Amino acid sequence: MRDVAVIGVGKTAFGVFPDRDLRSLAVEAGEKALKNAHVAPGQIESFYLGNFAGPSFVGQNHLAPYVSTALGIQGVPATRIEAACASSGSAFYHAWSEVASGVNDIVMVVGVEKMTSQPTAKVSEILAEAGDCSGEMRAGNTFASLFAMIARRHMHDFGTKKEHLASVAVKNHANGALNPDAHMRKVITLEQAMNGKPIADPLNIYDCSLISDGAAAVILAPLERAREFSEKPVRILGIAQASDWVALDQKDDITTFPAVRRAGEKAYKMAGVTANDIQFAELHDCFTIAEIIAMEDLGFVPRGEGGPYVFDGHTTRAGERPVNASGGLKAKGHPVGATGVAQIFDLVQQIRCEAGDRQVPRHSVGLAENLGGSGGTCVVTILGAA
Amino acid sequence: MRSGTVYTETVIYSAPEAFVNDVPYQTGIVTLEGGGKVTGRILGDRVQIDDRVVEVEERDGVPFFRKA
Prior knowledge:
Radius of gyration of chain A: 19 Å
Largest interface: A-B, 35 and 28 residues
Distance between the termini of chain A: 17 Å
Order of helices and strands of chain B: EEEEE
Distance between the termini of chain B: 12 Å
Number of domains of chain B: 1
Shape of chain A: globular
Strand order of the largest sheet of chain B: 1-2-3-5-4
Strand content of chain B: over 45%
Helix content of chain A: 25-40%
Structural class of chain A: alpha/beta
Number of helices of chain A: 13
Oligomer: heterodimer
Number of strands of chain A: 11
C-alpha cells in the first residue's frame, strides 16, 4: 500500500445562498482545489462526489458526472457516494483507497449539499431518510429527536448536564465567529445556549447544527509524487471507515457509537499513534451531544467524562486539545454532503499554519471524525505534516 | 399488547412535515419484557427513563405506549 498525501484543498463559504445552485457550489470548491494543488482538470484520473440527498433537495440525480464535466474533467470514472452525513468522508476514504492501492494517482473528491431551497419541515423529512424509515422515523422522530434520546440516556447514565451540552455550543460559536467562511459568526453566552427555543428535549436550537449550502474539495496524490504539485503537501497518516446499525433501537447501548470506536482504533493503528498523540480535532458536532460522545469513543477522555472536559475548557483553541477550531458543524455550518471533506480542509489549513485567527498552537497531527446518521457510518482520518 | 420500561425518551417541538400538527409529542425507545427494544410514541402523561409502560394501540406499524 502506498502512502497518500493531500496536495490541494478548496471550499466555498457555508451559509444560505438563494442565488447559488448545487453545481455552481461544487464547481467553485473544485476549481479552488485544482488551483491550490497546481493541477489541471485533465490531470484528474478519477473523481468522487460526496452528496447525501441532491435528488430530494434539488431534484437532480447522476450527480458525479454532472459536477465533474462542469469542472472540465472528462472521460474518467466519476462516482457518487452516499452515506448520510458521512457521504464525503466516505468518498474521501474511497478516493484514498484508489491512490493507496495504485489504481490511480491523482484523484479528486468534492462534497456538496444544497439544502436551503426547502422549508425546514421538508429538510427534516429529507434528513430523516438517513434513519430507519420503517421504524424509528415512522414514529415521528427527527434527527434532532434521535440525538435528544441519546443525550437523555447519556445524562441518565453518566450525569452529563445541560450546561455541558451548552458549553459545546458556546465554544464552537466562539470559534465560528473567527471563521470568515462560517455560516454563523455569532458569539453566544452559556445562558443563551441553555435557553434556546426547544427542538427536542433536552436539545434546543443551540444544540443543533445548521442547515446550510456549501461545498468542499480535496485532491489526493501518492506521497512520493506530492511535491511535484504542492509545496505544502499533508500526509494521510491513518484512515478508516466503519459501519453499524442504522436504527437506534437495534443498539445495546446508545451512549456510544461502535462505528466511531472501530474507525478510530483502525485509524490510530494505521498511523501508529494513540489518542494522546492527537493535538487537535474536527469532530462531527451535528448535535452538541455528538461531540461529547465522539471524544469518549475516540479515547480523548474516559466514557462519561466528555461533558465536564468541554465545560472545563480543555477543548477551546487555547486548551490542551482544541476541538472544532473551525466552528464545527454548529457554527461553520453543515451542508451534510460537504461536511466530511470540509473537515479535511480545516485540518489541512491548521497543519499548513493557514488558519488565521483560528490557528491552534500545536498543529502537526490532527484528526477528523465524520459521522453518518445516528452512527450507521463513521470515517476517521488522521492527517500530519508531510 | 406489549409492555416494558422506558430506555430513553424525548419531547419533540420541531417536527417533520408529516407530524407538524402533533407537536409537542413524546417518542421513546422501550425495552420490552421478553427482550428487544422498539421505538414508539407515548400517549398521556409524560414518561421518564425506567418508567413502566404498556402498549395501548398500534397505528401504521408504530406502537403507542402509555404509562403503566
